[in-house]
Q: What sequence folds into this?
């Protein structure tokens, strides 16, 4: 049995557009966001993703789990950047220290030190905006993309029939395998297997993952036979494929694609002109007496 | 079909040329700083094309082989492999399940999936499993877009599937093993010459690569050799592990080396700080989990008579 994503027909901005147009826009958006480390540009993308989230028509109840997971993840990620200063090393050379805290103990001669600097804080904020924008746009896709349109969407984006169909199936299988994994976990737990308490050396640990890894994989492969039979019986791949649903670009879809492309070219131009790198407001540096 | 593919290849080369021209003109002639060193997001897409071209060239060279056929079964296997890879890498990436990582060795058991699917069902299935699975896995986590890593994962599955091109799987094994051994030795030597290099892929960041992470590739390689000779009678296990090893080294190597240009790493940082801590643990997982999968799958095949 297949488990599905929580798609419903909603009154939302995303679903107002053709899925192909949305995917193209999404890709442009993602690539553009990746170009920038400058908070001024990033806040623009952040704003777009916020508008999309608010108008998506998903209820808090539906999105709660995924949302909390992603937000937690994004925050932990940004916090780690903030604490270790990693990632920023390439972006800035000088740090203007606001406060330096150092632990009163040392571990193996290493004293945990926390340097709070303007650059570090801004880098963490920029990263937060960047990752959050991308994450929001991404988790909304399964909620707003009609499963019966997966195949034709990928086909419409120029993939060959078979690849489009494989992508379609991939999207459909993901939640199912997530469920299967959970079931297998529970079954193994009932027999006394505890993934949370894997001990032993490296190799021992790896070996102990087998009881969960192998059944899920093999079960998926065995289960595939039914799908293969069903597809063969419907003469999959014998002739050129036709799709049940039809997608047509409307004016608004063309506008959305054009917007995405304009965004992309503008971002590229900005990048080539040398802007968009990491940015710290002068005022803050002056504030700490830089 | 063939003409179409050639068209795709030509188009890719043209796009690649344009990209490189832009980067070269922008970086060297117009002196745009962002295109010279440091993080250069444009180049990510260059390496996607490079990776695709590598796969395409191998395909064009051995077109006649049956390994390249894509029927109903392959389509479904591709989808299953990619979905499994996405789910596993999402679950095990340290956010949902914290599989304890021992002194900087990040545990990514999911890597066995593209290798196994590549080996069992052919290079195309392997490539799709790795590339699309990694893409969806990253999307599930809300991570950004690292297309060159998706292609690198694709190449792992692709290379793991190459033994299908050989009539006699035994013949190629030793040369693959030697190639893997040489690459491992080079990486290890580089590691011992640059012990202070910082680890770029595993927590805690900003620490020098730990000894375990540094030599994990050697441990993995030794495991592969052990599996190859102890279970050598079962040619499937031996071939799957050996080719998976080569795929892992070349695939992760491809991604790490591309970071010399994309992230502005020095070659030693790319190999010691990125390649070793990523490829080494992968290899350990591959050496243990891939044989388990091969054996389990063989049992299923016997049972169902397929």
A:
């Amino acid at each position: 049995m297949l488990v599905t994503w929580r798609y419903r027909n909603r009154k939302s901005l995303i679903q107002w557009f053709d899925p192909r147009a949305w995917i193209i826009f999404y890709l442009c958006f993602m690539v553009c966001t990746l170009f920038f480390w400058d908070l001024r540009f990033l806040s623009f993308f952040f704003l777009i993703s916020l508008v999309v989230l608010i108008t998506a028509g998903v209820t808090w109840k539906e999105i709660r789990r995924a949302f909390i997971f992603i937000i937690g993840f994004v925050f932990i990620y940004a916090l780690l950047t903030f604490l270790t200063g990693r990632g920023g090393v390439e972006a800035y050379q000088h740090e203007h220290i606001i406060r330096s805290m150092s632990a009163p103990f040392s571990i193996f001669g290493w004293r945990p030190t926390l340097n709070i600097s303007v650059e570090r804080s801004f880098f963490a904020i920029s990263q937060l905006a960047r990752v959050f924008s991308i994450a929001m746009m991404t988790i909304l896709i399964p909620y707003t993309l009609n499963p019966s349109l997966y195949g034709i969407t990928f086909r419409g984006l120029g993939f060959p029939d078979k690849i489009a169909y494989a992508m379609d199936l991939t999207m459909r299988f993901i939640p199912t395998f997530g469920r299967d994994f959970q079931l297998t976990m529970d079954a193994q737990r009932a027999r006394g297997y505890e993934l949370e308490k894997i001990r032993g050396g490296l190799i021992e640990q790896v070996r102990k993952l087998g009881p969960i890894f192998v059944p899920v994989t093999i079960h998926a492969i065995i289960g595939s036979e039914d799908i293969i039979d069903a597809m063969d019986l419907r003469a999959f791949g014998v002739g050129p494929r036709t799709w049940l649903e039809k997608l047509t670009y409307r004016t608004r879809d063309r506008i959305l694609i054009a917007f995405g492309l304009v965004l992309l070219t503008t971002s590229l131009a900005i990048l080539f002109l040398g802007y968009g790198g990491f940015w710290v407001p002068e005022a803050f540096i002056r504030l700490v007496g830089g | 079909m063939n003409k179409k593919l050639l068209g795709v290849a030509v188009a890719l080369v043209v796009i690649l040329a344009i990209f490189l021209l832009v980067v070269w003109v922008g970086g060297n002639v117009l002196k745009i700083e962002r295109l010279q060193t440091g993080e250069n997001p444009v180049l990510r897409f260059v390496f996607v094309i490079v990776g695709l071209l590598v796969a395409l060239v191998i395909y064009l060279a051995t077109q006649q082989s049956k390994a390249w056929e894509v029927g109903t079964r392959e389509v479904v296997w591709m989808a299953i492999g990619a979905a499994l890879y996405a789910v596993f890498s999402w679950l095990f990436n340290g956010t949902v399940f914290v599989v304890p990582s021992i002194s900087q060795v990040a545990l990514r058991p999911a890597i066995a999936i593209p290798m196994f699917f590549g080996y069992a069902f052919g290079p195309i299935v392997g490539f799709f499993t790795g590339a699309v699975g990694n893409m969806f896995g990253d999307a599930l986590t809300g991570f950004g877009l690292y297309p060159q890593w998706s292609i690198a994962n694709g190449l792992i599955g692709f290379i793991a599937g190459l033994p299908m091109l050989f009539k006699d799987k035994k013949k190629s094994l030793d040369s693959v093993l030697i190639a893997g051994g040489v690459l491992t030795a080079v990486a290890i030597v580089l590691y011992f010459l640059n012990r202070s290099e910082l680890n770029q892929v595993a927590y805690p960041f900003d620490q020098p690569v730990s000894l375990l992470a540094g030599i994990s590739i050697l441990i993995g390689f030794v495991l592969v050799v052990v599996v190859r000779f102890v279970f050598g009678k079962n040619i499937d296990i031996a071939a799957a592990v050996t080719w998976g090893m080569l795929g892992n080294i070349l695939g992760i190597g491809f991604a790490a080396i591309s970071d010399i240009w994309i992230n502005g790493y020095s070659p030693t940082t790319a190999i010691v700080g990125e390649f070793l801590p990523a490829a080494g643990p992968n290899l350990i997982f591959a050496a243990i989990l891939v044989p388990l999968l091969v054996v389990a799958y063989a049992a299923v095949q016997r049972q169902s008579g397929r």
Notes: Chain A has one domain: 13-287. The first helix of chain A runs from residue 13 to 16.
